[in-house]
Design goal:
The protein has 384 residues and is an alpha/beta fold. It has one domain: Deoxyhypusine Synthase, CATH 3.40.910. It is 51% helix and 12% strand. The protein contains 16 helices and 11 strands. Helix 8 packs across helix 9 and helix 11 packs across helix 16. It is globular and about 80 Å long.
Length: 384
Amino acid sequence: MHPHKPKLDRHAGSAANKDFMKSISQHKIDPPAVTGNMLAADLLDTAFLSYNGGRMREGCRLYAERMLAADCTVGLALSGALTPAGLGMACLVPLVEAGFIDWIVSTGANLYHDTHFALGMDLYQSGPNLPDLQLRENQVIRIYDIIFDYENLLGTDKFYRTLCRGEAFQQTMGTAEFHNLVGKYLNEREQQTGVGGKSLLAAAYRAGVPIYTSSPGDSSIGMNLAALMLEGSKLRIDPLRDINQTASIVWDAKAGGGTSGVFILGGGSPKNFMLQTEPQIQEVLGLLEAGHDYFLQFTDARPDTGGLSGATPSEAMTWGKVDPNKLPGTVTCYVDSTIALPLITAYALTRRLPRPSKRYFDKLPALTAKLEARYAEVQKERGE
């Protein structure tokens, strides 16, 4: 035995041990039997107890009980091919309509494939092991186990080129303004065809929820806008406007005495673009802030490979992205988003009543002007 290592007496201090265990315990593991008539929310509360199941339960509760409070602004970061799998209409549209999402950062691909449904185009379930060469020869497109006709791409491309040749698009705009304008036309198309509730872009337009794309050139939408540029179109997308607008949303939420929560599906550029609002406010603009209050992420990436974009909540805290005093209000659940999203949607819609939309899109000019004025004051104080 090491001469300086004290001997552990497992029989001593049992009362103190019990007090310590009680201090870190939540509930005794003694769940009721699962039945065939349980609500999804009840199943999550009673049977999802440990491991990633436990984190799934904690994430659902964090979202429903704290992030959906009236004074919390919820941002959704959306990556992965979720809309072609039907999760836009099944989950995201109901969350937007319930007032449970206030602003969004999405990949362009999710919004492009969302458009298929508003235009009445069909996608189908299939299987993951398909003869890809035969698919190519028969003009069938595959996204893992989802298939659709190549004509869907051509038709959606034509829609965007035709729409964006219009006079309303002949200007410089941020991605929120662009997606809101597209959503307006998709909403009208849904009403004409009677397929309402299919499109996230249309739902966001109706609710005044701004949708941003952190990499506007990295999708078929961006590709079609680039083609219009060759025709002489005056449409220009300004991503720098997006940076200031997203920062102004978070700044307004926090400066007004409220809180900010981030709900992250996957990772990648949308995650970082959403989280960087706080370093933009603190580090670049020099405004007094501490970080997002709530952090909820569903991901299958790992931090040790460099693949967990923005990394863990604790690491993000070192950048000022997450308030260090709010780390207990963070959950990372290592699970496929296609599993997590339907579960948390069902949980939130069961446990919370709808809340009024904050309609941040309508407020963007005023919020950006407010941020600009405060930044000017800080520059003057700095002598810049």
